[in-house]
Amino acid sequence: MDRSFFDRKVNEVAPELIGVELLVNGVGGEIVEVEAYSPEEPGSHSFRGRTARNASMFGPPGHAYVYRSYGIHWCLNFVCGPGEVASGILIRALEPASGVDEMRARRGLDDVRLLCAGPGRLCEALGVTGVYDGLPLDEPPFSLRAPSEPHAVVVGPRIGLSKAIDLPWRYGRAGSLFVSRSFNAA
C-alpha cells in the first residue's frame, strides 16, 4: 500500500484499514480496530491547530503520527486526508501474527489476545516510540499490505474521550477477539 491510499477523507480510509497487515520491522499482524479523528471535531489533537506535538498530523498523508498518551504510552496514528487536512487514524488493536515471541518479550506476558489490544499495548508490542513520528508508512520500518478479501466491519463510538463522544468513528473487525473493547460494550 502506498501513500496515495491515505489521500482521502478519514472516514473513507478508516474502515478500509480493517484487515490490513501492519508490520513494524517485521513484527505485527492484521489491524482489527481503529478510530478516526478530524480537525473539525474537538476529540482530535489537530482541533486547536498545529503544535510541536501534533506537527506530523499536518504533514502529507501516508505518514505516522506518534505521540505519548498521558506521558505514559506511545500511540500510533496514520495521517490521512486530501492534501494536508490534519486528520489521523489511531491504530487501536491488531491480531498478532508475525514476531509473536518478540511481542511477548516486549510486553512481558503470554496471552496473545492481550499483546496488541489497545493503542499503548500495540506500540509496546511493536516497539513503536517517538522516533517513528513523521516516518512514511510505505517505507521501512513500516510495511502495510492490503487484505486479500474484505472483512465485515462494525462501527461504534470512540473510547476514552470526553468530547465528541457521540461520533461513531471507531471501526473494528466483526467478531474479533483481539479488539481492545467489544463493540457491544461500547
Topology (SSEs and partners):
Layout: H1 10-16, E1 21-24, E2 27-37, E3 64-69, E4 73-80, E5 87-98, H2 100-107, H3 119-126, E6 142-145, E7 153-156, E8 170-173
Antiparallel strand pairs: 1-2, 1-6, 2-5, 2-8, 3-4, 4-5, 7-8
Name the CATH homologous superfamily. Answer: Methylpurine-DNA glycosylase (MPG)
CATH architecture: Roll
Largest sheet: number of strands, sense, barrel closure:
8 strands, antiparallel
Report the total helices.
3
H/E topology pattern: HEEEEEHHEEE
Describe it for me?
This protein is an alpha+beta fold. It has a single domain (3-173), classed as 3-methyladenine DNA Glycosylase, Chain A, CATH 3.10.300.10. The chain is 12% helix and 28% strand. The chain is built from three helices and eight strands, in the order αβββββααβββ. Strands 1, 2, 3, 4, 5, 6, 7 and 8 form an eight-stranded antiparallel β-sheet that branches. β3 (64-69) and β4 form a beta hairpin. It is globular. The model has no long low-confidence stretch (mean pLDDT 88).
Descriptive key words:
3-methyladenine DNA Glycosylase, Chain A, 3 helices, 12% helix, 186 residues, globular, eight-stranded antiparallel sheet, alpha+beta
Briefly, what is this?
The chain has helices spanning 10-16, 100-107, 119-126, and strands at residues 21-24, 27-37, 64-69, 73-80, 87-98, 142-145, 153-156, 170-173. It has 186 residues and is of the alpha+beta class.
